[in-house]
Amino acid sequence: MTVSPELRTIGAPRQASPDLLRSVFRQHAAGVAVITAHGDRPVGFTATSLSSVAAEPPLISFGVGTTSSSWPVIAEAEHIGVHILGEHQRELAGTFARSGADRFGEPTRWSVGPEGVPVLDGVLAWLVCRVVARVPAGDHRIVIAEVVAGDPAGVGRPLLYHRGRFTALRD
Asked: Could you tell me the keywords of this UniProt record (predicted)?
């Protein structure tokens, strides 16, 4: 088998660093979710690390930084909300990604859902999950949670995060 020269070139490797990891993952398109919880106040943040872990029992996971303003509530919450955003929700994703933003003020529309978890309006799908583990992972925690309720009936196409910006699928 003959390999063309452009396929043999891999480029100069860089040493592992936070910048290398961020640069590589800018090339990875990820779905956009908002994670919510309620303690003394409702909290939430935009996440691109959401994963399905298992079907039986139904488990999900996501990462959250321990320096995040949401972490103190997430660290103690028994239940969290997971919201899959649609391409029409770039502004909402930005609000929940911005430090210091009033995430639950106008124009955010939400209601109290199962287990008292804030549930966002107009999302493609949402889940309420019971937290079963918080696993240390560097400056983050990986939260594993079991699904207890949800609704997959939203309409639209998913919002994506790629190369440092929110974007949409193209056909």
From this structure: Oxidoreductase
